Amino acid sequence: MEMTASARADQLLIPVLLVSVLLTGCLVKEDSPAPGCIEYWGPAPMGGCFGKTAILDLQVEPEMECLQISVNNCNGGVLEVSNSCAEMLVLSRITIHPRERNVTLDLDRENGEYFLRPTDSNFSEYLPPEDEPVEILGIMGALEVRIAFTKTSELC
Fold first, then answer.
1. Helix or strand or coil: residue 30?
2. Residue 61 sits in which domain range?
3. Torsions phi, psi of 15, nearest 5?
4. 126 and 63 within one domain
5. With pLDDT > 90 as the criterion, what percentage of the chain qualifies?
6. What pLDDT, on the 0 to 100 scale, is given for residue 42?
7. Measured between alpha carbons, how far is 33 from 52 in angstroms, rounded to an integer?
8. Measuring CA to CA, how many Å separate 66 from each of 25, 60, 126, 146, 147?
9. Residues 25, 70 within the same domain
10. Is 46 inside any structural domain?
């Protein structure tokens, strides 16, 4: 019994697709919130994210449309803040003015107290020995702003 051309093409297509997926590193073997800990079948995709720590479970209260606070876990976990509110945001040692965008903040600790400090990159220098729950309080106008998250120790 002779195979049709279509059946032969189907038989060749499956191994070709499998090899191409493995070579592009698209299959995740072990996932992690820290990009530097993700294991792939085959080579890892190209990119510049190598962090082995992360910020998890970010909570910002109260939620405001004009205040955007997000996590960038690319290289160890930093916060990114954009303030389009009419009021400035004061977080312990720093002030983020109205219309200030894309301010990157790293976590630090001094005398048992957590604080955020501006940084020019997405590389976090703070490496806790174990997962740490963090709470930062700030003020925006008459409102108290609460930022809470977990900063992980190295995940791999």
1. strand
2. 55-151
3. -65, -35
4. yes
5. 67
6. 66
7. 9
8. 38, 12, 28, 15, 15
9. no
10. no
Indicate if 85 and 139 belong to the same structural domain: yes
Q: Is residue 22 located within the same domain as residue 64? A: no
Torsion of CA 20, 21, 24, 26, to 10 degrees: 170
Residue 78 contacts residue 119 (beta carbons within 8 Å): yes
Instruction: Give the pLDDT of residue 128.
Output: 95
CA distances from 123 to 27, 28, 139 (A): 26, 24, 26
pLDDT in tens, 17-54: 455 544 454 555 567 899 988 887 766 666 788 999 99
**Cβ(124)–Cβ(107) below 8 Å:** yes
Same domain, 69 and 105: yes
The rounded distance, in Å, linking the Cα atoms of 124 and 146 is: 21
Hey, is 63 helix, strand or coil?
A: coil
Q: Are 18 and 27 in contact (CB under 8 A)?
A: no
- Do 81 and 20 fall into the same domain? no
